[in-house]
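Translate sequence into structure tokens.
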Amino acid sequence: MQRLKVGAIKLHSLEGELPPDKAVTIRRLYIEEITATDLSKVGSYSIDIDRVVSRNCENMIGAVQVPVGVAGPLKVCGEYADDEYYLPLATTEGALIASVNRGCRAITKAGGAEVRIHRDGMTRAPVFACKSVAHALETTRWVEAHLPELKAVGEATTSHGKMLGVTTYVAGTSVFIRIEFSTGDAMGMNMVTIASEKISQMIVEETGAELVALSGNMCSDKKPAAINVIMGRGKTVVAGVFLSDEEVREMFKTDSETLTSVNYRKNLVGSARAGALGFNAHAANVIAAMFIACGQDPAHVVEGSNAITTVDRMEGGVYVSVTLPSLQVGTVGGGTGIDTQAECLKMLGVAGGGEPAGANAKKLAEIIAAGVLAGELSLLGALGAGHLARAHKHLGRGQR
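Result follows.
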């Protein structure tokens, strides 16, 4: 403590001299003294931190606990997820889990959610500076003519990743190379970044273009971007369910016409008028809660919420669907190995690598998409019946 106070050792250097648990304790006590704050609750946790301090969190002082509840069972009829599941949802928003739970009941009673994955590819897009617009065109033409060589160089950096393709974009003398990889059961951002670095080195050597940044924001990572809505990033997943008129009345206390109208005027017209990228009711709520519970990168909720909810009026009922163009999930790496998050993944039967490779990550994506469908359906029903404010007043504020 005295060495920290006089600057003889830095906070980030403690693990070099102490076991992880002692380093975390000393760091927390130091911050407590400096900020005059009791952090004893932050210092109480159940996770094994040996792995965490080396892979997940620098300058660790403890852990913040987020309540985890379950919704379900939810019947999922996917190509990878084909069973009933209890969804682990980490949230502090009262009424959310109750709402998703109602959607789960409706979907399960209706026979389950159909779910399909249409695309699966993680992207990274380096940006290069060229000498002129002519040089920029020469660079893009070279890249497009040498895809097999670039594929070989990129895939040599990983035992799991496979290059799916490259798309070039130009803005004046800036050239963007959007590289897409399949990444197995990993979310794959690190994998694709390392591969893209090697690919970029070859492009520099062969074209004379200057690599400015390994990420040029055409990826586009952790930012709202139309390119991810159109081209997809991570998993592009669609989930849907048919509900009869009777099921709509019974479960949501409204009717099919009202449900269709609410979705059209709120999710479609309202989102378009607002210039939104996501045309949905609250997809981010379910995605964020499952991401936190299951060790996903919470910042990727930005891309995950680029969801489109549709309600098609059909004979005898409605077909409700959600399309998630850019859902980025993995079951290995990142936060998936932290004890509490690993337990939630095990609960869904997706912990670790799948057989074949990528099966577990796809299964998790299908389950999350079905969960989003449950959340959308329930909120649309609550709005149609005029129950939203009542539910939040009762569950969100709680009883005193």
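Note: Residues 18-65 form one domain.
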